[in-house]
Amino acid sequence: MSNNKAKWIKISFILSIVLLFVKFYSFYLTNATSILTDALESIVNVVAASFASYSIYLSSLPKDDNHPYGHGKIEFFSAGIEGALIMVAGFFIIYQAIYNFFVPNELEMLLEGMALIGFAGLVNGVLGLKLKSEGKRLNSLTLEASGKHLMTDTITSFVLIIGVAIIYFTGLNVLDSILSILFSCYIIYSGYFLVRKSVAGLMDETNPEALKQTVEILNKERKDAWIDIHNMRVQQYGGDRHIDLHLTLPYYFELQQVHDEVEIVENALENQFDGAIEVFVHADPCIPEKCCHYCQLKSCQVRKFDQKSKIRWTANNMTKNQKHYHDLADDND
């Protein structure tokens, strides 16, 4: 998996260097500040791709004594750096656009410049879609962030072409600075979104999508003997996923039976996800006076109360640090 990540990041890095020269050559031909904004963002692409390559190398390293959960979190840091660089580029572009508003440039060869920017935007768009797709498949925030960045670059490039075309046909060179400022605001917003997502990962904020997938799998594989699952935690470390949960089983199960049921839960989760995954299951005994009311085990020989309901497992109740008989008590209040 790490080899696939490294391959796509290397492709992104090489193309970002080529397109950087294409865009700066376009600026050299046209002298348009709006095209300069696109070229400056390409510098960010090169820096981000190089840092992403190193972060993927680190994230692929095995666990060690100092990093018992692996090195996957470096991908969050990488995405945050990329977002911060995008924002810095956006603010610099605004400064340059305001300066050129008062000291305008003489624009030249706009048609040739538009053609070069269009070519660069098309390449970035195709690569961005692929990186975003591979990032989701491999659970790599670095690839996904790079893909979104390149797709943002594609959008700005083609909107830029429209703006430069308007300047070409109207002769209103002042639109160059206005267009640059509008692009910069969009770039800054895109960078902020990446930084926000990076901080969320570094702070172990709940990943709703990862949690939803885990709940769906457990509901699909649910066994009658799995009386309850609670105190579930799903954490994403780059491409690695860690799942902790408490599984309530019949109190009379022997140790081998408990081990077998725990192994079924672990296998059900590990076989459904791409990427590295660790599952830690803590087994709890049932409490007959309380768990019988929602226990699904029809063959139970020690049942003290009839089953009254079936607990629907959701992301909300499975993450609570309590067994589900509390929910039944709340419903009866």
Automatic annotation (TrEMBL):
Segments spanning the bilayer are 12-30, 42-62, 74-98, 110-129, 150-171, 177-195
Q: Where in the cell is it found?
A: Membrane
> What are the Cation efflux protein cytoplasmic domain coordinates in residue numbering?
216-286
Positions of the Cation efflux protein transmembrane domain: 9-203
Q: Does the keyword Metal-binding apply?
A: no
- Please give one Pfam family short name: Cation_efflux
Q: Transmembrane among the record's keywords?
A: yes
Describe its membrane topology: Multi-pass membrane protein
InterPro entries xref list: Cation_efflux (IPR002524), Cation_efflux_CTD (IPR027470), Cation_efflux_CTD_sf (IPR036837), Cation_efflux_TM (IPR058533), Cation_efflux_TMD_sf (IPR027469), CDF_Transporter (IPR050291)
Enumerate the UniProt keywords alphabetically: Membrane, Transmembrane, Transmembrane helix, Transport
Name the predominant localization.
membrane
Q: Which family does it belong to?
A: Belongs to the cation diffusion facilitator (CDF) transporter (TC 2.A.4) family.
Tell me which PANTHER family the record gives: MITOCHONDRIAL METAL TRANSPORTER 1-RELATED (PTHR43840)
Q: What is this protein called?
A: Cation transporter
